[in-house]
Amino acid sequence: MSTVPKKGSLFESFRRRIKLEGAISVADYMADVLIAPSHGYYMSNEPFGVSGDFITAPEISQMFGELIGFWCADTWYNMGGPTEIHLIEMGPGRGTLMSDLMRAAAMVPGFHQAVKIHLIEVSPKLRKKQKEALNGYNVSWYDDLTDLPAGPCIFIANEFFDALPIRQFERSPTGWCERLITLDEDETGLVFTLSPPSKAIETIIPKELVDSHEGAVVELSSIAANVSAQISSHITQYGGAALFVDYGWGTPTAKPSLQAIHNHKKHDVLLEPGTADLSAFVDFPTLQKSAEANGVSVHGTVTQGDFLRNLGIEQRAEMLRLNADQKQAIDITAAEHRLTDPSQMGDLFKVMALTRPDQPTPAAFPEQKEAL
Ligand SMILES: C[S@@+](CC[C@H](N)C(=O)[O-])C[C@H]1O[C@@H](n2cnc3c(N)ncnc32)[C@H](O)[C@@H]1O
Prior knowledge:
The chain has 372 residues and is an alpha/beta fold. Helix content is 36%, strand content 23%. Bound molecules: S-adenosylmethionine. The site of S-adenosylmethionine (SAM) has 20 residues, from helix 2 and helix 4.
């Protein structure tokens, strides 16, 4: 699987690095491809929509952000309606979700006055888009979660965790190895290779997966686990909640999911790095473990279809259709179907919430059974 790179591309920097330091991990590759300041995918592309590479739920319909707005307002109300609440969105894309969320939540008395918006975004190009979408609101931007505001927070992440770097491990005939990326023979392209097997690798494979069949691939993201831990300890300390929506595994799974998408189609992961989006299924069980270890209650996962239906997407679509012309009504129905149908995003996408244990079960999640 080798390719001829463009001159001056991210490939050139991978070539130099691999020649000097040897094969690199999938996580190092993914981090550079997505957010390297010079040629990273998110740093220099406008990836969303029909003219871009992919479309996300908030870009499919305003209903998605609006229903999350009701979820946030309800969660805030259940917290006793604090006079200051930090609403923190991670990876806000074009700012569409936050804009729809704030418009819908304006109906809840006191919410707008209490909210301070914080966006975690690395891409200067997307920050500019977010600024336009949220014109009129007081917004602060951050590169990462290092400097979280003291005080209760509601964290939102839609299709953020799937962009965080993962490492891949493969069960070879002689034991667990790491999948690495190196140069092909003529040094004009990139190929996958395997590290030697080691006991050290075996110890980090989740115990449910360690006896997987030969060829099985396990994907792990310490960055995602750390983000979940950091958010959880913040909620434990100050109160608040988090909502994670992403495509991913609800149970530990040994299957490779790393993919590249360019122009709405699958693309070779190693081809012309920086020109296609890279993402991987989110490992929700690891996010859950990390959250519980930091003192929060975990709700879900529930499927995106159930989550949106529980929040009233059918009624919202009906209301929107009342004021729509025929073409708009067809579009609203199609968007509802795309967001909720099991054959579309309804089952593949999962939703998990975190709350402080003294808070009630958040809207759209099943009541938790009392421990005996
Ligand atoms: C797939 S997009 C999702 C955008 C948006 N949430 C939506 O649903 O339309 C991923 C977003 O995360 C941002 N992002 C990716 N990696 C990041 C990182 N390591 N730190 C902060 N933001 C990141 C991207 O710039 C982009 O805004």
